[in-house]
Amino acid sequence: MKKRNSEDLSLLEVGALHWRLILICTISCAILAAIVTLILPKKYGAEVQFLVKNDLQDLTITPAQGTVPPSVAELNEAQVNSEMQMLLSHDLLQAVVMDNHLYDRYLKEGQKTPDSEQIELAVMKLTKDLDITAVRKTDIIQAKYRAHNPELAASVLTNLSQRYLNAHLQAHSTPGSQGFFSDELESYRNNLRKAESAASEFRRSSQIYDPDVQRKAMVDQLEDVETRLQNTNADVDEGTTRLEALTRENETTPERIPTDQKTSSNAMTIDHLQTELADMENRRISMVAKFKPNDRGLLELEQEMANTRRNLAEVKAEYSAESTTAINPLHQTLAANLSDARVNLKTLEATRTALLKLKQNYLAALNTFDKNSTRLADLNENLALAQSEFTDYGKRVASADLAQQMNKEKFSNVVMIETPVPSPIPVFPSMLLDILLGLLIGMIVGFTLAYARTPSRELVIEAA
Predict the structure, then answer these.
(1) Which of 7, 452, 415, 395 is nearest to 177 (CA)?
(2) Which residues in 417-447 are b (16+ Cβ under 10 Å) and which e?
(3) Which residue(s) pair with 133 in the sheet?
(4) Phi/psi of residue 410, each to 5°?
(5) Quick check: 164 and 402 in contact, CB under 8 A?
(6) How many CB atoms lie within 10 A of CB 257?
(7) Which residues are CB-contacts of 134 (< 8 A; sequence separation ≥ 6)?
(8) Structure pTM?
(9) 422 band by pLDDT with thresholds 50, 70 and 90
(10) pLDDT in tens, 167-201
(11) Which residues make Cβ contacts (< 8 Å) with residue 433, sequence separation at least 6?
(12) What is the spatial distance between Cα 355 and Cα 378, in angstroms, rounded to a whole number?
C-alpha cells in the first residue's frame, strides 16, 4: 500500500469520487440561471443601416477650374467617421430624448417638465445605449439601440434617422450659392463681351485674320527681295569691273588710225606688228570682262602688248613713212560699250537702292505684324479665359439649381437601406446563453467543493 496526497489526484479521480456533488451543483446553477433569466427585465433591440455614397458633390465657391469637371473622389474612412459623429451629435440626441420622452425615468414624483440636468442624464443614457459602428470593408454605418419596449426602440432609431438625414442635408447644402453664382455669371458675361469686342476691334484695325498664313506670305516676300538684292549686288560688282576695264582700254586706244601710208621696204614688219597688237587688244578686252585685273594671264598679255608697242615704235622710228589717218573703229566700239556700261551700272545701282528700301519696308512691316500678332494672341487668350470662366460659372449655376432642387426633394449621398422595426424577441437576457453559463459555473463550483471535501490523505492500493 502507498499513501498519496489529495493534490496528486486528477480531475477524473475527483469526479469519480464526488460525482453526485458535482452533478447537483451543475444542475442547481443551471436552474438558478434560468430563473434569473426569467426574472430579469427584457430588453428589445432595433437597428438601422445607412449607406454612405459619394455621388452628391458639395458646391465649392472658388474661381473657375477649367472646362474639365472635377472627378468624383473615392470615399475614405474620415468621411464615414464624420457621418458617425454626426449621428452622435448632442443636438440630435437631445431632440430624440425630448421626442420620445426618454427623460421620464429621471422625473421626480409629480414632475411633468424635465430640467436641464434630467435631460442631460437621459442624453448620456441614450449615448451609452446606442451602438454605432461602421461595417468592416463597406461604406455602411449601422446603429443599434436597446430598450425595454420594442416599439420604443424602433421609435428612437426612426426619430434619430430622420433627424440625422435632415441634419446631413443641411450640413452639405450651400445656402446662397445660387445667388452668388448668378451674380458671378453676369459679371463674367460682361467680361466676355468686353474681351470679344476688344479682340474684334483690334483684328479689324490691324487687318490680321490668319496670323500664320499672313506672316508666311510676308516672310516669303522678304526672302524674294533679299534674293533679288543679292543678285543685283553681284551685277553691280560685275558692271563696275567691266566699266573700269573698258575705261582703261578706251584710254589706251587711239581715236584715229592711218589709212594710207608709204613706208620703206620694212613696211611688212610694221603691218605684222600692228596686226598682232590689234589681236592682243581684242584678247585683252575679252579677258578683262572675264578675269580680275591682277590675273596672271592678263598681266602677261599686257606685258606682251607693251613689248609689241615698243618694237613697233622702234621700227617706225627707223623708217620714214608718209600716211593718212581715219577714225579708229575699235575706239568707237570701246566708246559705245563704255557708254552702255555706264548706263547699265546706273540702272543696277538704282535697282539696288529701290530693293534696299523695299527690304527695309518689309522688315518694318514684319516687325509691326509680329507686335500686332502678339497683342492679338494676348487678346485671344483673354477671350478664351473669359469664355472658359463664363462656361464654368454657367455650369455652376446649373449645379446650384440642381443642388437646391435635390435638397428640396431630399436627395442625399447618405441613404437609409434598413429601416428600424420593432421585434417581439428580446435580445437580453438570452435563456440559452444564461443556462450554458450556469452549467459552466455549476461545474466549477462542484469541482471546487469536491476538492475541498477530499481527505488530506487517502489510502490507495496500487500494484507494486
Answers:
(1) 395
(2) eeebeeeeebbebeeeebbeebeebbbebbb
(3) 142
(4) 60, 40
(5) no
(6) 16
(7) 80, 81, 84, 140, 141, 142
(8) 0.40
(9) confident
(10) 877 776 655 555 666 677 788 888 888 888 888 88
(11) none
(12) 34
- What is the residue whose three cell numbers read 494672341? 377
Q: Is the alpha carbon torsion for 419, 422, 428, 433 positive or negative?
A: negative
- Residues 350, 16: Cα–Cα separation, whole Å: 140
Q: What is the pLDDT of residues 23-65, one digit of tens each?
A: 888 888 888 877 777 776 667 778 888 888 765 444 444 444 4
Residue type, 300: E
- For residue 50, give the 3-state DSSP assignment: strand
Place of cell 430624448: 97
Question: According to the model, what pLDDT value does residue 13 have?
Answer: 77
The SS3 of residue 261 is strand
**Where are any strands of DSSP class E within 164-320?**
256-262
Cα angle, residue 58 at apex, residues 55 and 62 outer, rounded to 5°: 135
Cell numbers representing residue 133 in the block? 459602428
Task: Calculate ∠ Cα 363-368-370, nearest 5°.
Answer: 95
Spatial CA neighbour of 18 closest among 453, 336, 461: 453
Each domain of the chain, given as residue ranges in start order, spans 1-38+447-464, 225-356
Amino acid in the structure at residue 14:
V
Do 126 and 102 touch, CB atoms closer than 8 A?
yes
Q: If you count them, how many residues does the chain have?
A: 464
Q: For cell 490680321, what's the residue?
A: 208
Cell numbers of 35, please?
430563473
Lowest pLDDT segment from 206-220, 304-318, 423-437: 423-437
The contacts of residue 64 (CB under 8 Å, 6+ apart) are 388, 389, 392, 393
Q: Which three cell numbers stand for residue 234?
A: 553681284
Does an H or E element contain 339, and which? Answer: helix 329-408
Per-residue burial over 177-211, b = 16 or more CB atoms within 10 Å of its CB, e = otherwise: bbebbeebbeebeebbeebeeebeebbeebebeeb
